[in-house]
Amino acid sequence: HTHTHAHEHTQTSSLTSFSAGGMAGTGISALLLVLLALVVSAAPVAAASLGQRAEGDAPAHLTREDLPPSLLAKFDKLDAFAAAQALKNLAGIPLQTLDESAFFSTNGKVYIADPPKVRSRRRSVSREVQRMRRMFSGSPPTGFTSDGIPIHHSLPGSTNIIYIDFNGHVISGTQWNTEFGQAVWNAVAYSLDADFATFSSAEQVGMSGVWNRMAEDFAPFDIDVTTEEPATFGPTVGRYVVTRSTDADGKLMPSNTAGGVAYLDVFGEFDYHTRTSPAFGYFDRLAGGSEDAVGETGSHEMGHNFGLSHDGVQNEEGDTVIEYYEGYPNWCPIMGSAFLQTVTVWDMGSYPNANNPQDDLAIIAGKTGGYRADDHGNSLDTATPITITAGLGTSTGVVERNTDFDVFSIVAADAGPISVSVNTFVSPSNSPGANLDVLLRITDAANNVIAVYDSTTTTSALLNAVALPSAGTYFIWVSNTGDAVPPFVYPAYATLGQYTVTVTGAVLNPATTAAPTTQATTRTTTRTTTRTTTRTTTRTTTRTTTRTTTRTTTRTTTRTTTRTTTRTT
């Protein structure tokens, strides 16, 4: 992208200087259009994604005729140069997924204006979800900024950053400004009341909730989701501005009737941070600014920045009939309409009549250089020991790939029962927002399965009172799974995320306990040395002192020696 768009910038600059020199007459303009047409025809744009369209084989190169009807009228308003760039920018995007929400900028960039979110219903929360919220409802802030924003980082040190901007932002010099004819917007801060100068405790809780949801969505990747403004911005630093649909001066923000707005497939470009960022989430159009609506919108809009299009539904002819898929009960892809769902995940067209075959995980990982580093070993030999204290041990982790197994080891001093629970992230309020669905196993040192838990009603796992047959080392395996029991059927793909594992049992050995043979050897050596030294010192000191010194010296020496020997003993 950097090379391509640098070339585009050179072309634009050349045309501008040509016109500025007073040579842009009718003949020159016609000549330029001919030259542009020759360039486009000589270097056509590949449309690899069209090969996956339902209507059959895709054309070799993307042309106007390949665009869906919903885009044609918008495309035809572009000049020749912008039209050529638009066809390039659409390469790799499944065109059937671009519907009424897609628009072209005057430079050929594509942006998406997603509709507002309204809480039309409240789903009842099960007792199991309530229990899960008590076990793992996200990470608390590490502190607060000077203006009261809770500080969170999901992966400190990563060069790929998603900054959630809650404290207002001045937007100028971007493609947004050019497109909507505004020199500057003074975007207001996130607020649930009329006070935009300070953050209330409810707003601080809401900001942490937004971060926790987005951190869970991007947990598999080498990405730091943060609420702390980075020191510098570059091609791999994205900004999600949570603001109102009108700025501080009353001016309409970009696509202000939408709930969220973002440019498509721009993360990593050399001018990303200055031209096509930020993405927007308008809290006054997102269920009253609730953390689940604002958070799910943030992940969705940043997904657009990474190059992801909408997950919808198509008919037998391959035409999109629903732009935003609402999912099964309790499950929905993030690039659909994941608001209000229990499990929200990235997808690859895994549901019936899906119109979008994009491999979301591979696309995001490709943009960011890969996945998060594995935090626990995947085998018996590389298992992470769980430290046990008073019969209780805990650990945390992230299942970051569909092929990942996180393995932990425990040691039992005798046969007897233990309990193991693995709790996934669940938001403390509103929809759960979980991504990971856990498959839990316990095996012995020979990898024989002792117990398995794969629930069809909850994303967490609990093995209670599992009888260990004997003393020895046992292993806890944590991985992801799907759900195969109707009506809650969804694949294991991308059910990835954070968890905590807890193990309890009276038969478990503390990790710091030494072997009994070592203790016996130490005691024997200490006793022998002490007795020998004491007897030798006493006899030698008494005989020598009595024969060669006066009575006064004898008394003094004897007292001193006795006291020293007693303390040593």
Give average pLDDT, whole number: 80
Please give the count of helices: 12
Total beta-strand segments = 24
Principal-axis shape equals: globular
Strand order of the largest sheet: 1-2-10-11-9-5-8
The radius of gyration over CA amounts to 33 Å
Write up this protein.
The termini are far apart. The protein is globular, with a radius of gyration of 33 Å. Residues 1-60, 123-136 and 512-569 have low confidence and may be disordered. The chain has 569 residues and is α+β, with helices and mostly antiparallel strands. α7 (201-217) packs parallel to α9 (291-306) and α11 packs antiparallel against α12. A hairpin with a 5-residue loop joins β12 (313-314) and β13. It has helices at 2-20, 26-42, 69-75, 80-89, 127-135, 175-180, 201-217, 272-276, 291-306, 360-368, 516-548, 551-568; strands spanning 102-104, 110-114, 143-144, 150-151, 161-165, 169-172, 184-187, 224-226, 237-243, 260-263, 279-282, 313-314, 320-322, 331-333, 343-345, 384-385, 392-399, 406-412, 416-424, 438-444, 449-453, 461-468, 472-480, 497-504.
In short:
By secondary structure, the chain is of the alpha+beta class. The protein has helices at about 1-20, 25-40, 70-75, 80-90, 125-135, 175-180, 200-215, 270-275, 290-305, 360-370, 515-550, 550-569, and strands at about 100-105, 110-115, 145, 150, 160-165, 170, 185, 225, 235-245, 260-265, 280, 315, 320, 330-335, 345, 385, 390-400, 405-410, 415-425, 440-445, 450-455, 460-470, 470-480, 495-505.
